[in-house]
Amino acid sequence: MAKKKNEQYSDDDQDYDEPNFDDPEGFVDEATDEELLGDFLLSKPCETDGVENVVVVDNIPKVGQARQEKLRSVIEKLFSTFGQINKEFYPVDEEGNTKGFAFLEYKNSENAEEAVKSLNNHRLDKSHTFAVNLFTDFQKYEHIPEKWEPPTPQPYKVQTDLYNFLIEPDGYDQYCVAAETAPNAIQVQFWQNTLPEPMELETRDRFTETFVKWSPQGTYIVTFHKQGVVLWAGTTYARVNRFQQQATHFVDFSPCENYLVTYGPTPDGQKIIIWDIRTGLEKRTFLSKGNMSRFRWSHDDRYVAYMGENAIFVHETPTFFLLDMKSIKIQGIRNFSWSPTDNIIAYWVAELVDVPAKVTLMEIPRRTEIRNKILFNVAECKIHWQQSGDYLCVKVDRFSKSRKDKKDSDVKFLGMFYNLEIFHMREKDIPVDSVEIKELILAFAWEPVGTKFAIIHGEPNIANVSFYEVKKGQKPNLVKKLEKKVCGHLFWSPRGQFIVLANLTMGTFEFVDTENDFVVMNSGDHFRASEVEWDPTGRYCVTGVSAWKVKEENGYYIWSFQGKIMKRVMLKNFEQFLWRPRPKTLLTEQQQKEIKKNLKKYYAQFESKDRLRTTRASKELLEKRAQLRELFMEYRTKRIEDYNNQKTRRLELRNHVDTDNLNTEDVEEEIVEFLIKEETTIIE
Which of 48, 308, 312, 487 could form a disulfide with 136 if both were Cys (CB 3.0 to 4.6 A apart)? Predict the structure, then answer.
């Protein structure tokens, strides 16, 4: 019964019953503390609070007191690369030997997490591989159920077909075109190079923030974003995987497309991560402070190597441990390169005091030096492998005299001349031939399929282009010299024979057939063109004016291999044109030669297809024209009908004079002049 605010209950009041808050007999409370006090319990202190900066290093060597100082210095050297270590603790047993694990406390949790990612499973020696964990991870492992339950089967997901582009009946190639539509928003168009006109497959707006890149065999295309990079593949370019690394600015694929390398900036340099493409797992992380070169892969993905200070570091896949647990020490190394077909590294060493320069071929994994070439008075070397790995050319810049500048301590070279050192890789003892060039070499390029190479030498404005042929057991032979050519770049067709002599400053191009007396088939120009791209078949070539270079007249031209312009496309803010690569052919050299030899047998079949395609295109064009004419006639008839319906209104507006049928031949023209305005001007 309700009472007034100030009203008191008396003992005589029989209507009031005191409430009873006791649980009934046999009551069982099923509510847990987490359900009642979930938010409150989240703030409950736990044992791991305050130790987010601590890492536990397990499986370290168990050593006595005499060797503990050396063990500490080795571990500190490894782990201090990720940040400052404030404290370290090595538990010992009753005899004073380490127990095989240690605790390291970093300055902050970010350094600790980086150390765990990079050094977990790090191989110290043949008997010890680190197991590195955060101290806070142990709380996670406490709640593992004692009874194992099998995982729930997941429904099967149909995987996208990664290689559908290879089964196109007519073998048409694909390409992508990238253009900026808004700041940090790049539109990418995918096309198929069909005849008579290319066919657009798909357009993706805001597909990437910077640029795109195909994988070496054309299976994947990678896009760049603030959070990392994404791989796409299949008929609809579906997302295959994503790899998180902030501000990734460059990526590299392994030749067999098993691994992806991402490069991103750090406050002290750059962070390099190697990923497994199919699983998306991080395989290995490296931190570079500026003395590490780009990673370079062997042809079969078995090894990846980079150059550090006076050493080459070769890592094995899939563990990514150092080969034989040690680097290859090479004093004064300047550059190296893998053979495209064998596990052989070519590197060169600069001249030191009383020690000449040297080019060396080393076989991996045995680290055997299979060939050396001593060189004197060397300023610079460039390593050029032939695509088939049969030959290696080392372009050597040599000098007659050198002088050290007292002001900036730079060495200046005088009396420059050039040598091409040709290594015959398939011959016994790898003989080396030398070609001396007195003039400045502006460009060098091997023929991708064949035994020729081309060089541009002389002055940049008026240069000469020389073609050499290399044969087994013979010295390189000069087969042709084209004089007074204004070019600075060489672009061979992927199938050999045809080459483009390009001047990317003026935008001029010459197309040369190197198997028919080196005739210049055609010349053309594309003003301000900054890139040249051959398609995988060698039938088409593209030149482009990228917005990265200039902001006006952006677009691209598609040329035939004979130098005829097939298509001109002007595209605002055009940035990239990339042909989709293809895997290497499965046919042997003998089978390819047989096809070329019997090519005339297929002419009738191909010509029939071409005629049918042209007829089909003409038929489609006629049908389109007829449809447009029909639409126009329909529109014209409707307008005439409206005109006739409005005749009454026109008569009213024109004082009932029918001007529609007015005979203008009986009308005489009369000129009437009348005064409009009169002004008087007083001239003083």
Answer: 48
User: What is each CA distance from 160 to 255, 283, 375, in whole angstroms?
Assistant: 22, 24, 53
What count of Cα atoms within 13 Å lies in the side-chain half-sphere of residue 181?
13
- Give which of 315, 316, 317, 350 is closest to 333, Cα–Cα: 350
Nearest Cα to Cα of residue 257 among 317, 208, 201 = 317
Higher pLDDT, 665 or 385: 385
All residues at 6 or more sequence positions from 493 whose CB lies less than 8 Å from its CB, including other chains: 448, 499, 534, 538, 541, 561
pLDDT per residue as tens digits for the range 30-84: 666 666 666 655 555 555 456 788 999 999 999 998 899 999 999 998 888 888 8
Q: Please, what is the angle between helix 109-119 and helix 65-79, to 10°?
A: 100
Report how far residue 190's alpha carbon sits from residue 185's, in angstroms, rounded to the nearest whole number: 16
The CA distance from 454 to 465, in Å, is 7
CA atoms within 13 A of residue 204's CA, in its CB half-sphere: 20
Nearest alpha-carbon partner for 208 in 235, 185, 176, 192: 185
- Residue that is written with structure tokens 């991996």 in the block: 364
Which helix or strand (DSSP H or E) is residue 609 part of? helix 600-645
The answer to whether the CB of 325 falls within 8 A of the CB of 126 is: yes
Could you report the per-residue pLDDT of 97-108, keeping only the tens digit for each? 999 999 999 888
* CA distance to 30, 37, 39, 239, per residue, from 34 (Å): 12, 5, 8, 40
Distances (CA, A) of 462 to 184, 215, 457: 41, 38, 9
Q: Which residue reads 């007074």 in tokens? A: 484
Task: Answer left, alpha or beta for residue 655, where phi above 0 means left and psi between -120 and 50 means alpha.
Answer: left
> Which of the 8 DSSP states describes residue 123?
B
Q: Which residues contact 533 (CB under 8 A, 6 or more apart)?
A: 541, 542, 544, 577, 578, 579
Percent of the chain's residues with pLDDT above 70: 90
Tokens of 533: 């791209």
| H/E stretch holding 35 | helix 33-36
Cβ–Cβ under 8 Å, residues 128 and 63: no
pLDDT greater at residue 36 or residue 607? 607
Tokens describing residue 112: 């600790």
Select from 330, 388, 326, 395 the least CA-distant residue to 360: 330
Positive or negative torsion for Cα 565, 570, 575, 576: negative
Residues 6+ apart with CB under 8 A from 159: none
Do 327 and 307 form a contact (C-beta atoms < 8 A)?
no
SS3 184: coil
In the structure encoding, which two tokens stand for residue 1, read together? 């019964």
CA distances from 560 to 87, 176, 472, 565, 574 (A): 68, 18, 33, 6, 21
Structure tokens at 389: 């790995």
